[in-house]
Specification:
Blueprint lengths: L15 H10 L3 H4 L2 H5 L1 E3 L5 E3 H46 L3 H14 L5 E7 L15 E2 L1 H8 L9 E4 L2 H7 L8 E9 L2 E10 L12 H20 L1
Helix pairs in contact: 4-5, 4-8
């Protein structure tokens, strides 16, 4: 008597979900049935059919390329951060050696332009004992706080860091020797509850400084300046 052949299953008898559940519970199925890997074919984007093994290799290759790109991005970011740290350390050490307002300002502006490749750099200290506007011909730039607010408005109100494209009058107030307009990052110099002034870096590129960029580096420099200013001001 001939052996009874199993009745083929129809699609209605075995759903996709059941197949997925089975394979999920038997992850070694294809390892125990390697011949199935050669029989299974998956449509390719080109229209040709490829085996499951070939498809898996293709997916792994794409993931490998993606991981290499991510690793490269992380490596580039680490290299940039290391350079930023070294430049910041060099600047802070130079600021600590400054013995006057003039030398403090000169160190800051020179470092910003040379090491950090900014087009413009400025420090403006609030001095309510003077009624004059900022004198761009002096290395020490002093101005009443109300005068600064009048020209820069939202950039300095609230004492929060600001980055973005500036109007021509704002850009020229911060950087009187600049030609044209551009973008800038502006950070307040604060010591406790007191606002001592601000630092700013600028670029003729209107997109270099934008609202989404971080300002932690400039905030660190501003914090260092806030602690050095009383000393150099007393010696001025």
């Amino acid at each position: 008597m001939a052996a009874e052949q199993p009745t083929p299953l129809t699609s209605s008898e075995l759903s996709d979900a059941q197949v997925r559940d089975f394979l999920g519970q038997h992850l070694d199925f294809f390892q125990r049935n390697p011949d199935m890997l050669r029989k299974l074919h998956i449509p390719h984007a080109s229209g040709d059919a490829v085996s499951l093994v070939e498809r898996q290799v293709s997916v792994l290759r794409e993931r490998n390329v993606d991981l290499r790109h991510r690793l490269r991005d992380l490596t580039d970011a680490a290299r940039d951060n290391e350079q930023l740290y070294m430049n910041t350390r060099k600047l802070v050490l130079a600021l600590l050696e400054a013995d006057s307002l003039e030398s403090l300002f000169d160190v800051f502006t020179r470092s910003m332009r040379k090491e950090f490749k900014t087009d413009q750099a400025a420090i403006i200290l609030f001095d309510n004992n003077t009624t004059a506007a900022v004198d761009a011909t002096k290395s020490c730039r002093l101005a009443p706080r109300e005068n600064v607010l009048e020209h820069l408005g939202p950039l300095v109100k609230g004492g929060k860091p600001a980055c973005g494209a500036l109007r021509d009058e704002e850009f020229h107030y911060l950087f009187p020797d600049a030609r044209g307009s551009g973008s800038a990052a502006v950070v307040a110099i604060r010591h406790g509850d007191s606002e001592l002034g601000l630092i700013a870096v600028g670029s003729v590129d209107a997109k270099r400084y934008h609202p989404q960029m971080g300002t932690i580096f400039l905030e660190h420099i501003a914090a260092v300046l806030a602690r050095l200013l009383p000393r150099v001001t007393a010696a001025h």
